[in-house]
């Protein structure tokens, strides 16, 4: 029971890189992470990655979910929902399970829907999500 409480506690905390801070290197975290400064490197987050409106990230990212309000340039792999806010600008390559794009978001990237494993309806879901993503992307371009 103590282990579950520890895991829940880690996942509910949010690490922060504040505005005005620049970091180059590798970040790894079992919880959530918010970036309002600048990061250049490799990021592995087991929880949610939030790139704030003033945040800039360049490099490779792997995370469970991502909310992008700022700028991202590189490769991002999201094992859940990639949410692009109206102030976001992303470029590079994006792989995700689900995509949500607000009007005004700027996308200059290759988008790929990840395969859902051990799900017989994956192909049906994949077709619907890709069509929806293409519609949303063309609507906000």
**For the residues shown, what is the average pLDDT?**
82
The radius of gyration over CA amounts to 15 Å
Domain module tally: 1
Order of helices and strands: HEEEEEEEEH
Molecular structure report:
The protein is an alpha/beta fold and 141 residues long. The chain has one domain (11-140). Helix content is 21%, strand content 55%. The chain is built from two helices and eight strands, in the order αββββββββα. Strands 1, 2, 3, 4, 5, 6, 7 and 8 form an eight-stranded parallel sheet that branches. Mean pLDDT is 82; it is low at 119-141.
Short précis:
With 141 residues, the protein is α/β, with parallel strands linked by helices. The protein is 21% helix and 55% strand.
Looking at this protein, list some descriptive labels.
single chain, 141 residues, alpha/beta, eight-stranded parallel beta sheet, globular, disordered C terminus
Describe how the helices and strands are arranged.
Elements: H1 2-12, E1 14-17, E2 22-29, E3 32-35, E4 38-51, E5 56-68, E6 71-84, E7 89-101, E8 106-113, H2 122-140
Parallel strand pairs: 1-3, 2-4, 3-4, 4-5, 5-6, 6-7, 7-8
